[in-house]
Amino acid sequence: MKKRTPISAFNIPIEKIKSGYYSDDYFLRTAEILNKDNNHPRILMQVFQREHIVLCGVDEAIAIIKTCSFNPENITIHALHDGDEVAPWETLMTIEGDLADFAHLETVYLGILARQSRIATNVRRAVEAANGKQVLFFSARYDSYLTQEQDGYAALIGGITSFSTDANAAAAGVEGLGTIPHALIATYGGDTVAATTAFDKYIDQSVSRIALVDFDNDCVNTALAVARKLGAKLQGVRLDTSNNMVDKTIQTQMGIFPPTGVCKELVAAVRKALDDEGFGYVKIIVSGGFDAAKIAEFEKLEVPVDTYAIGSSFFDGNINFTADIVLRNGIDCAKAGRKYLPNSRLELVE
């Protein structure tokens, strides 16, 4: 049996949530009406969505319900698990009880499910496309810092264990990783070799020496220059050419393939140049514009990439979750077009 994340693992602003601070107002008014009218049937709320996804956020949604509802001892939850593959319209969670006790939570738990499932799904598809090669979660800069721990958890559920910030990495129990940004190179006057040499001099030897080699839009020659300087200490080079740029090496080959960004021809040219000078041990990391589809294409073409670093595409798309009341005191009461859809995969939440 799968284990759930304990409630204590979540940093939940209980009083704010219970007060309705994060809730759509019509849910607050619903609870007010039910309480004032003394209308307290036992209902069954059914949660679903409409795509093939990797489910994530269920454990946090459960924690929210158990800590922020009123009379939680009277609420029964059945649910799937974080990491489960879920089909369109499949019931992924049911909540039974007095709606007045948890109406104010619908906005909150649906939002948690939507965000975390979107990230977990995008991550898993990228990891699957990478055929066992390392995929890095370099997405922190594309959203609020307040979401980093949740986002990192979703990425872990999706299959990634390497992150750019400590907050992203918290759920995995590791530290963030990363080496050289363009900003460091710029402060050395655009001299990638000087910046990489300084990194090697001052940063702990346990940190991988990965050189960023696209600053001058000349990845082949920059990679070779750094490799000649650092020798065996250089573990990898990262190609991050903008999708608006064509690397100098590729400019002479233009005409029969899309030349911009980190294209397969650029990766192959860097690999060949390093191999020809005896730097076959230097790994190639690519970043900039990668998603599951581009990774799958690179893998199909056997492009010599060792690691994929992905940023904004992990936030692409939307997964919309819906909660419907389908039973009232055990009797069907769903709105037109909806019905009670029992799911034998659901487990009782203790």
Poorly predicted residue ranges: none
CATH class of the largest domain: Alpha Beta
According to CATH, the fold-level topology of the largest domain is TIM Barrel
Mean pLDDT: 96
Distance from first to last alpha carbon? 13 Å
* Rg (C-alpha, Å): 25 Å
The largest sheet is: 6 strands, antiparallel
Number of strands: 13
Would you identify the CATH H-level superfamily of the largest domain?
Aldolase class I
Task: Count the domains.
Answer: 2
| Share in helix | 25-40%
Please write the string of helix (H) and strand (E) elements.
Answer: HHEEHEEEHHEHHHHEHEHHEHEEEE
Our estimate of the beta-strand percent is 5-15%
Continuous helix count: 13
Which structural class should the secondary elements be placed in? alpha/beta
CATH architectural type of the largest domain: Alpha-Beta Barrel
Textual characterization of the structure:
There is one protein chain. With 350 residues, the protein is of the alpha/beta class. It folds into two domains: 7-118 and 317-348, nicotinate phosphoribosyltransferase (Alpha-Beta Barrel); 131-315, Alpha-Beta Barrel (TIM Barrel). The chain has helices at residues 14-18, 25-36, 58-68, 99-102, 106-129, 148-158, 166-169, 182-187, 192-202, 219-230, 248-251, 264-276, 292-300, and strands at residues 42-48, 53-54, 76-79, 85-86, 93-98, 134-137, 210-212, 236-239, 283-287, 307-310, 322-328, 331-332, 347-348. β9, α13 (292-300) and β10 form a beta-alpha-beta unit. It is elongated, with a radius of gyration of 25 Å. The model has no long low-confidence stretch (mean pLDDT 96).
